[in-house]
Amino acid sequence: MKRLLCLAIAAPLLLAACSKNSTDASGVQIFKYASGIHQEGQITYKEHPPVGGPHNPRWQQCGIYTQPLYDQYAVHSMEHGAVWITYKPGTSAADIAKLTAAVQGRSYILMSPYENQPAPIMASAWNAQLTLKSADDPALKDFLAKYEQGESAPERGAACDGPYATTTTQ
Amino acid sequence: MKAVRAVLAALVVVLGLAGWGLWISVRPPQEGSPAVRFARDMRLHHAQAVELSMHILERPVSAPVRLLAQDIAVTQEAQIGQMGGWLDIWGLPFAGRDAPMAGMNRVAMGMATEAQVRSLDTLSAKQAEIEYLELMIQHHRGGVQMAQDGLKSGVPQVQTLAHAIVQSQTAEISLIAGMLRQRGAAVPAGLPSPGTAPASSDPANTDSMPMDMK
């Protein structure tokens, strides 16, 4: 009986341990979301910004935005391979310009302010997230090289534009 | 004895050269090589042809334009996958450290601006169809130019695809020109030279769009 009880307690813990994220050598946090289901309406995510999970049937049109986005559209773009660069509101124009320059000409990019995030500047992709040390942190380029349409995206290379991509902002 | 040594030395040189040649020929294309640049640049260029086609397919345009748009979309999407497959097998990321088409003048390579892409949603169906044909003819002209670079990559599978792109897009350029004439529209004169448009007017997905999307 005791053993069964132990198992009952251990199993969920073990499961939790398995889905827990880790951090790789370059400081990128790794997650394990399986490709997400489609779900209408507002979706609440565990991570801010999110790094995977259920998402809206529409995806966010890739590009640079000056207003916050809705998580549930952005996550769908991330499933297609987009990297979402987010900064806290109040970030200096100079820093935003540096970030804009860093993504110039790249196509699977979302960039927007993000209120409720734990660090000033972050880069997120499906199952991967990086906290930037500054707006010109060289780690961003490595992150983009690896995760823009990267292997971790369940539907890498599917468009993040097109007539049904939403351009909605908050 | 001296002769044996000379023969042995020659053998070492020949084997060394052969081994080096073999290594060069089987080694996958490296980061920064023309083949890798071609794969990444052309994936971006193709993606916009698919995007333009997806937009026009949502409009009530004529059957020949729908057929053309579907043909372009399915063909180029398949080729995007093919080029992604190469990068995978070569052990390289799709994106890379530099933006695709870095240093190229995108307008001179036939890329449409974000506003031109959006205009396909808002123009009347009749005008949108002409706009699509005009944008596609320029896009193909740039695509053929970029494919010429692929022909010089020295990598057989890249050269095969580049050759196919040159052939099919050249044929489609004549087809589209005919369609434009049928509709009483002028065929665009040609692409601007790379020197005429500043890099800042590059129609990346990422630069011009944000301000009107607040």
Strands, helices and their partners?
The complex is a heterodimer of chains A (170) and B (214).
Chain A (H helix, E strand, L loop, with lengths): L1 H18 L2 E2 L5 E2 L32 E2 L6 H9 L3 E5 L5 H11 L5 E5 L7 E5 L2 E4 L7 H9 L23
Parallel strand pairs in A: 3-5, 4-5
Antiparallel strand pairs in A: 1-2, 2-7, 4-6, 6-7
Chain B lengths: L1 H25 L7 H24 L5 H27 L24 H9 L2 H27 L4 H27 L32
Helix pairs in contact in B: 2-3, 2-4, 2-5, 4-5, 5-6
Protein name (chain A): DUF3105 domain-containing protein
InterPro entries (chain A): DUF3105
Organism (chain A): Deinococcus ruber
Low-confidence stretches of chain A: 11-19
The number of distinct helices of chain B, counting runs of at least 4 residues, comes to: 6
Which oligomerization state do the chains in this entry correspond to?
heterodimer
Helical/strand content category of chain A: alpha/beta
Please summarize the sheet with the most strands of chain A. Answer: 7 strands, mixed
> Are there runs of chain B of 5+ residues with pLDDT below 50, and where?
204-214
Task: Please give the most extensive interface between any two protein chains, plus how many residues each contributes.
Answer: A-B, 35 and 34 residues
Helix content of chain B: 55-70%
- Cα-to-Cα separation, first versus last residue of chain A: 53 Å
Estimated share of beta-strand residues of chain B: under 5%
- How far apart the termini of chain B lie comes to 85 Å
Per DSSP, the total helix count of chain A is 4
Q: Which overall shape of chain B is indicated by the principal axes computed on the Cα atoms? A: elongated
C-alpha Rg of chain A, in Å? 17 Å
Q: Give the strand order, joined by hyphens, for the main sheet of chain A.
A: 1-2-7-6-4-5-3
Provide mean pLDDT of chain B, rounded: 89
Instruction: Please summarize the sheet with the most strands of chain B.
Output: none
Order of helices and strands of chain B: HHHHHH
Helix content of chain A: 25-40%
Beta-strand segment tally of chain A? 7
